[in-house]
Amino acid sequence: MSKLLAIATTIKDWQVAEISALAEEYTVRLASDLTDEDFPNIEILYGWKNEFADQFLTQGYDSLRWIQVQFAGVNQLPSEILSDDNIRITNMSGIHAIPITETVFGYILNQYRHLLLYKTRQASSTWQAEANHRSLTDKKIIVFGAGNIGREIARLAKAFGMVTIGVNTSGRAVEYFDTTVDTDTALAESTDADIIVNVLPATDATNNIFSLDFFSRQTAQPIFINVGRGNAVVDEDLIAALDQEFLSYAALDVFDVEPLASDHPFWQHEKIDVTPHMTGQVEHFADETYKIFHANITDYLAKNELPVNLVSKEKGY
Amino acid sequence: MSKLLAIATTIKDWQVAEISALAEEYTVRLASDLTDEDFPNIEILYGWKNEFADQFLTQGYDSLRWIQVQFAGVNQLPSEILSDDNIRITNMSGIHAIPITETVFGYILNQYRHLLLYKTRQASSTWQAEANHRSLTDKKIIVFGAGNIGREIARLAKAFGMVTIGVNTSGRAVEYFDTTVDTDTALAESTDADIIVNVLPATDATNNIFSLDFFSRQTAQPIFINVGRGNAVVDEDLIAALDQEFLSYAALDVFDVEPLASDHPFWQHEKIDVTPHMTGQVEHFADETYKIFHANITDYLAKNELPVNLVSKEKGY
C-alpha cells in the first residue's frame, strides 16, 4: 500500500499539483475521494473534518504521523490523536490574527458609535442620534492571551490611542502591551478596564475562567468580547453579569457547543451580539493556509521536521 | 449698553465662571436667556444655533465681531454673516478627526466582516456564516479631503495595512498618504480604489462632485462613505451607481437636507446605511470645544487675535 497524503481543506488545483510533485512517493487524495479503507493508510493529513474523528477511531490510524489543521485551536481533535506521540500536529496560528483583530475592532466601534442601533432605526426611517458616542482614545483594553492574535489586537489598540494590558501565563512582556500580567493575577484582581477581550485557546486551564466572580470584580462596566473559545465562559454567569450591570455588553463569536442552539438565551439577550464563529475567517484562505502547509511539507519530506506552528502536546496550542 | 458675550453650546458651570472672569468687561449670557433685543449687542458668540440666522437678520448684528462655532463646517451660517468682513469665524476643526475616523472604520469593518448582517440573523437565532469575509490589508482607500480628518483616517488606514491616497486642491504631499492627487485629477480619472471616503466641506467647489460619471469610472466596485457634507453627492446618481453595480455599498452620515426626509430612498436602499450626522460626535465635547474657545478668547481679549481655527472667508473652511 502506497503512503497516503489526504487533503481536507480548501485548496486550489495548482496547489494539489504542486503537492503531488513534491510528495512524489505519496498518493495524494482529496477528502471527497477517501474511503473507509484509506484511513489507516493516511500518513499526512492536510485539513481536518470533524467526521474524521469517528473514522480514524473506527478504522485505525496506525500510519498517521502529521496533521496540518486549517484552524488555530486543536481542541476539536479527539484526545486519542492529540495525545499520541507518533502524531505531530501543526496549526494555522497567525493567519487568523488580522481578521480576528479587525472583527474585534468592528465589535468595539459598533458599540462605541452605536452603529447597530442606527441600522435598526433605519428600518423605520428614524433620524435620531444618540447623545453618548464614545471614543477609543485613552480607553483601557485587557487582552487574555498575548500570542499572535493578542499582540495584533494590541498593535491596533495602540494605533487607536488605547491603554493595552496583556495577560499570559507568565506575565512576561509582549510588544504593543503597555503592561502584562500573569493569568492568575488577572483573573483574581479587580480591574477598571473598558474592554475585555478573550483570545485564549481551549485547554483545561481556561475552562470556566470567566465567571460571575470575575465579572463582578470589574469596576468600569466593561464590554466583553470572546473570540477565543467558548469553554472559557460560564454562560449563565455572563448573562447574570450583564443583567447585574457588571458588564455593559458582550460580543460572542465562540461557544461551548457550536452551532449555538437556537433556544440558547444568548441569541435574544439585548446586550449580547452573536456571530457564527467567523472572526478568524481569512479573505485569501487557500493561499494563506497553503503557505504554511508548503513550508511544513517541504521540511517534513526533506528532514522530517515541521518548522511552522507545531502544537505543543503539553500546552495544547 | 454693555458688551455681550453669548454662549449657545454645551458648557459646564465652571467654564461659564471662567469665561466671566476672563471677559470681565462683557455681560455673559446663555442662549436660553437671550431676548430679541440682545442680538444687536452680541459681540462674541460661542456656539451657533440655526434659529440665530433669522434673529440676527431681523434684529441686526452690528456689534458682532467673532463667532466661535461648535462644529467644523460653517455652511449653515447665513451668507450675509459669512461674507461680512467685520465678523471673524473660528470653528472646531480637529476635534472631530478622531470620532469621524473611528466611525469610518466602523462602517468599513461592518461591511468587510458582515456584522450588520449577523445582527439581522441574530433576531431569528440563525447561525449562518458568510463565505466572503474581507480584510483591510492591502486594500486601497482614497480620501477626498486631506486635512485634519483625512490625515487621521490615513494614519489608521496605514495601521490596518492599507494603501492610502489623499485628494486635496493642490495634490501636495500629506503625512500618512502614500500618494496625493489634486481634486480635478481624482474626479476625472478612473481608479481601482476599494474604499472611497469623502470628508470635504461644503463649498461651491464641492457641489455635486460625486456623480454617476464619477462613480462609473470606479473599476473595483468600491464602497463609498460620505462623512463630509451632503452637497457633494448627487443623490439619484449614487442610487444609480449602486443599482448598476459601479459601487457595492454606501455609508452616509450627511445629506443635502437634514434630517433626511423619511420618504428619501436612501433609507430603504439595501446597499445603503444611513446614520444621523453623528460621526463627528465627541465623547468629552464640552471639554474639547472649550479648550479651543479658551485659547481663542484669551488672545482675542489680549490682542484681538484668534489663533485657533480661523475660517478663511475665501475658502469657506
What does this structure look like?
The structure is a homodimer of 317-residue chains. Chain A is α/β, with parallel strands linked by helices and 317 residues long. Chain A has helices spanning 13-22, 52-59, 79-82, 97-113, 115-122, 148-159, 183-188, 212-216, 235-243, 285-303, and strands at residues 3-7, 26-30, 42-46, 66-68, 88-90, 140-144, 163-168, 179-182, 195-198, 223-226, 249-252, 272-274. Chain A has a seven-stranded parallel beta sheet with strand order 8-7-6-9-10-11-12. Chain A has a five-stranded parallel beta sheet with strand order 2-1-3-4-5, covered by helices on one side. In chain A, α4 (97-113) packs across α6. The interface between A and B is large, with 52 and 52 residues. Chains A, B: GO terms for molecular function: NAD binding; oxidoreductase activity, acting on the CH-OH group of donors, NAD or NADP as acceptor. Chains A, B: InterPro entries: D-isomer_DH_NAD-bd, NAD(P)-bd_dom_sf. Chains A, B: Keywords: NAD, Oxidoreductase. Chains A, B: This is Glyoxylate reductase.
